[in-house]
Amino acid sequence: MAENEQKQPNDSGKAVNAYAKYTGLAFQMIAVIGIFAFAGYEIDKAGQHTTMWVTAALSLAGVFVSLYLVIRSVKN
């Protein structure tokens, strides 16, 4: 039983590290998408566009970039 008690703290430590890692990835995704969307918004505002096509396109590009970064991080 002493062996089981020793393994539990290590397992909970790994769970906390995984939780922190994936929480950080979520905030990274939010930041990347937000930066791309803000850049698109500013371009649309400067160009005085009636339809926010650049915002939509850059937001979508931000999603793909953030997914690429998440997949690359999870692979490691």
From TrEMBL:
The keyword Transmembrane applies. It holds the Pfam family ATPase_gene1. Keywords: Membrane, Transmembrane, Transmembrane helix. The chain crosses the membrane at residues 22-41, 53-71. This is AtpZ/AtpI family protein. It comes from Mucilaginibacter lutimaris.
